[in-house]
Amino acid sequence: MRRTLFVAASTLAIATAAAAQDQAAQEAAEALGGAIGGLIALAMVIVVGAVVGWVASLIVKGTGSGLLLNILIGIAGSFLAGWLLPALGVAMPGGVVGALAAAVVGAVILLLLIRLIRRV
Question: Does any domain span residue 89?
């Protein structure tokens, strides 16, 4: 009887330890997955910012700024459009295309503001 209780208690302790290890491993994997997802999101923001800034610089002639400034202008233009367009009551169509169009509009506005400031 004692041996059976000892074996049952040992089995329960091993199973509990294994479950705790599995849970810790799962939490570590989720944290790593979240970190990788964050890096992918950052890479996407940089690439989309570069494309939006480049398109905006094509629309506003004579403002060739280079890759780094295109990225910064594209990202800042996206934020500007996200704040300014709804404040003006302009509704862009939903989805990825609408978000990209709004970002380009914001980047063009930003480039025009930069051009205006440089002239003054």
Answer: yes
Q: Does some domain include residue 50? A: yes
Tell me if 104 is assigned to some domain. yes
* 31 located within any domain: no
Q: Is the dihedral of CA 74, 75, 79, 82 positive or negative?
A: positive
Calculate the alpha carbon distances from 61 to 18, 97, 111 in Å.
Answer: 64, 23, 10
**Ordered mean pLDDT values, 10 residues apiece, the chain (120 residues):** 53 56 66 69 80 86 73 84 82 78 87 84
pLDDT (0 to 100) of residue 20 = 60
Residues 6+ apart with CB under 8 A from 43: none
* 55: containing domain: 37-119
